[in-house]
Amino acid sequence: xxxxxxxxxxxxxxxxxxxxxxxxxxxxxxxxxxxxxxxxxxxxxxxxxxxxxxxxxxxxxxxxxxxxxxxxxxxxxxxxxxxxxxxxxxxxxxxxxxxxxxxxxxxxxxxxxxxxxxxxxxxxxxx
Length: 127
What we know:
The chain has 127 residues and is an alpha+beta fold. It is built from two helices and six strands, in the order H-E-E-E-E-H-E-E. It has a six-stranded antiparallel β-barrel. The protein starts with a helix and ends in a 7-residue tail after the last strand. Mean pLDDT is 75; it is low at 9-29 and 34-44.
């Protein structure tokens, strides 16, 4: 079962890169997103972020391209490293099931600081 999941994950990375063209990031990471009410806006501090959060919703995102995305909303239980001011943290994944995410479960979320906010590796929970 582990080898099958790895093969699916690798194929998904290639599919994401092929569909996105030159706009695709060099890795399988997807951008963290900000809630309309600003609850997910990070502090302007520097450095990466590690958050302990509970997944409170998994919802399909509005269609922005050929690859459907899901918005993962987490309640921030603890800031383990970095600066973050919100009570919730959101990010997108291609498939919550492939990423190993379920509502009600708690996850350690590692996010890399970028000029626009944070990037989250959607496969970090499969390792």
